[in-house]
Amino acid sequence: MKDINDRNLSFFSPQPYFIAGFFFPQQLFQLAWLYRLSKLDAKKPVERGELDQMVDFVPYYAVGNICIALWMVFWNAERLDISHAFVTVNTLTQLYYVFAKLPPMNKSSTSSVLTHIVSKTFAGIGVLDFLHNGSVAFFKDQSATTAVKVLTGLGFGIASVASDWIFGGCLVYDLVALAVGQSGGWRTLLGAYAVGSAGIVAAKNLAKPPYHSDSPGYKPTGSDDVPDRE
Fold this sequence. Notes:
The chain is built from eight helices and no strands. The protein is mainly alpha-helical and 230 residues long.
């Protein structure tokens, strides 16, 4: 895969080892998430609520892994235009789940914490994959234009404002990976964007902590397990 990367470079080509360095720990969190998903019992009221949140992510998780597998097939075939289609589907799917479906993290719930880590790291690395694959598929051997530089700063700035520590940390990582993979003034600018993004994420989340702590588990409603009355 690296040989294809080295033959296809553009203004959003990251340092390739940063991607491998990201996926290794992310895979460990995925294994922990899958293990917990398999162990929770919906018949136990205390575990039912935790399981519901994890199951809600399952379709998005499945779509993501299918897209990544198909991306690898077409990337290795050096059909970067086709591989970009699967990158796009994966990235948009994960971003939709994170920003439209995922409830706030409950720090007291292992299931909630793991679901946030897995989904947000999936989305975070998806942003880098989208930029990388799109640039090499359609702008091979090109340098960043003024428009690209401005839009990159605006895009990451806006995303940082909307991010918690996890997704925001991924954005900073993406920018560092891009900076290390580039050279000259564009590298310097990407590095500055990384510092700026880190500052925005830190200021926003220190001012308004994004997580809460509640007792985990399913909270029965008035219609659940109500004994019959004579």
